[in-house]
Amino acid sequence: xxxxxxxxxxxxxxxxxxxxxxxxxxxxxxxxxxxxxxxxxxxxxxxxxxxxxxxxxxxxxxxxxxxxxxxxxxxxxxxxxxxxxxxxxxxxxxxxxxxxxxxxxxxxxxxxxxxxxxxxxxxxxxxxxxxxxxxxxxxxxxxxxxxxxxxxxxxxxxxxxxxxxxxxxxxxxxxxxxxxxxxxxxxxxxxxxxxxxxxxxxxxxxxxxxxxxxxxxxxxxxxxxxxxxxxx
Length: 232
Prior knowledge:
It is a single chain. By secondary structure, the protein is α/β, with parallel strands linked by helices. The protein is built from seven helices and eight strands, in the order E-E-E-H-H-E-H-E-H-H-H-H-E-E-E. Strand 1 and strand 2 form a beta hairpin. The protein is elongated and about 65 Å long.
């Protein structure tokens, strides 16, 4: 059960299908995978066989939007380019209200800004960083073709694959977290780490313009930050 004082972090991923599964006017959502930071297992919502035959993801989008709306922070991989924009496009087409402008961390863009890896794909990052949760094989393109034919077994296999992505996503988020300096503060206590709530240790100063600020590092997640009040 979640602690009401802790932020609700949602890790999410979608699987889409259609003539062009990358564009919301040419595709639709068939799986919404998600996991809350305070839960152990990932879950997923899948399109029904009835809706799949009509290429209708309206019911799935309504349920996914309810989950999204509960989040204080949402984490996607490549979500700023694909997932969130695809969802918003499908909401528009289905004449549904928008999801809230919740703060988002995109682990793909973050990895790209931190290091110059040969690839920032989730599968590659999970491999080189030796994650416990490796990206599963997705059965491309067979499972997608079967799904378009109304094969529920294929949809369930895609849901398992999507849930695996969500677990790898969560692991990547926490691995990148110490390097994510622009990460918004999600912990209310100003005397502790802004993102994990750990105790901080002060080391030197940060200089911004003519002002000087005390700099500190979290003793738990190792993230660096500084005080917001300048030293007089």
